[in-house]
Amino acid sequence: MRRRREFEEGVRRNRSNIGEWLRYATWEESQQEIARSRSIYERALDVDARSQTVYIKYAEMEMKNKNINLARNLFDRAVTVLPRVSQFWYRFAYMEELVDNVQGAREVFDRWMQWEPEYEAWMAFIKFEQRYKEVQNVRGVFERLVFVHPEPKAWLRWAQFEETNGDADSVREVFGRAIDRLGEEHMDQHVFISFAKFEVRMREHERARAIYKYALQRLPRAQSQSLYNQYTVFEKQFGDTNEVEEVVVRKRRMQYEAMVKRDPRDYDAWIDFAKLEESAGDRDRIRDVYERAVAEHPTTAEKDVWRRYIYIWLFYALYEETQARDVDRARQVYGAALDLIPHERFTFGKLWHQYAWFEIRQGNVDKARRALGQALGRCPKNSLFRSYINLELELREFDRVRTLYTKHIEFNPANCATWVEFARFESALGEETRARAVYELAVEQPTLDMPEILWKAYIDFELELGHTDRVRSLYERLLKLTDHVKVWISRAQFELDTQGQEAARSVFEEGDGRLRDVGRKEERLALLEAWRSMESDGGDIESVERRMPTRVRRRRVLDDGSMEEYFDYVFPDDTQGSRFKLLAKAHMWKQTQHSE
Questions:
Q1: Per-residue pLDDT tens digits for 190-205
Q2: What's the pTM value of the predicted model, to 2 decimals?
Q3: Cα–Cα distance between 440 and 421 in angstroms, integer?
Q4: C-alpha distances in Å from residue 193, one per residue of 150, 210, 273, 470, 472
Q5: DSSP secondary structure, 426-455, as one string
Q6: Using CA atoms, how far apart are residues 122 and 190, in angstroms rounded to an integer?
Q7: How far is Cα 444 from Cα 363, in angstroms, rounded to an integer?
């Protein structure tokens, strides 16, 4: 009684707490007070008549105590109040089937289907009828299902059922109705695939081929990839491969024709179109597509617009050379392309390069050289020089290579990559003096695009030869030009490898002083960290630690008058840092005096 009073007091204080009602009803049930438990559930439903949990727990209690009629009445109330809650219908039908009331379960499903629930509910009804082998009832449910959910998967399940329980004509009728009902707008390729596979199982190969062709003519390419794949597999098994390839090529040809008609300067579409025709192998069609494509040349003299267009000429020339085996026609294609480009504004090194190698393959070395020479004369650029140099390297004409490097440097003396390649070329030939002279000329240039690459290559060159004095001299010359921290660290590492820690320590000290004088705090910190890393291997690390800065937060005024916080580094030998420490100590002393 005391426990019951506690529950009554709890539900009286908080009537809306359904969990409290459920605990109360469960406790009464555990005490075998079924009537009281039922009364509590009813009181809970008076509080919340749409609580799914209360209905389910209530029904479970009645079924557990074998009060089937009461549970049936309760489920009937639940599906009347909440007809869109699927679990009530599932439990209701399951209970009727559990007590062998098959007709009652069928009536439950039938009532449920009147609400047109989701696809899974219909499939539960169909599976129920299949368990009792009611074939006609299953057909009736499928008829209602495809009316409510005319989706491809519903038609496919129906066709699968008819194939198992009916005859071939019934299956064909279902597929035919599916195609008519879905139409081209909602048609799915898997319906046709399943239909064709059924005909294959029936040994009706011509019917299957007709279905595939019918579908391929009506479905867009983007929605029929699997259909194409299945058709290809079908023809490989039962038909002529040429036939399916012709169907695919014809379909894609129509798509490309539509694309280039919509945008005649869609050069990517023209390239794909030409490649399609190349795969088909019709020479007249291939040349026709290429000729139509190159006729649509850009109307503006902008290189980005021309870039994709030039690729059409390149593919055209390659086709004539490698597949059509028409060398004269390939040469004409190259000539027409080169005449069309406005070389006074821009050129395409790839086209000149490919033409030169085409002549090389034909054994016309002089023509290849004349072509590249003409290119350099009309529109010199770095890529053309490199292409010509690589050609002469392949031919082992080293004097010509040397001449070309000289011309390249005269054209662009600021290009460090060219200087380095020239020096490495001389070094590879064993001409160390020439290579060193090239490097010397390079570092004396007033303007260089990437001097760090040039100096590094020069230093590495002398290191490979073992000339440590020359390397040291190069570092000294470089440090007169720049105070970059990486140069100091590299110099210190060189001294460490050649003369030991003392020499490296001297370099670090000199670099620390130089960076301190120019006020590069972050680079100075990086130098000290590298120094500390070296000293950590049995060196004097404490002397480096004494030089390490302190990271402090400061504020500064921006141009718009606002304040910005930033981090600064205060070094022990920094005058401003010493003044900062003095002010901090004075501030601490003042606070101590004030507290006293």
A1: 888 998 988 888 888 8
A2: 0.54
A3: 14
A4: 18, 12, 28, 78, 77
A5: HHHTT-HHHHHHHHHHHHT-S--S-HHHHH
A6: 21
A7: 42
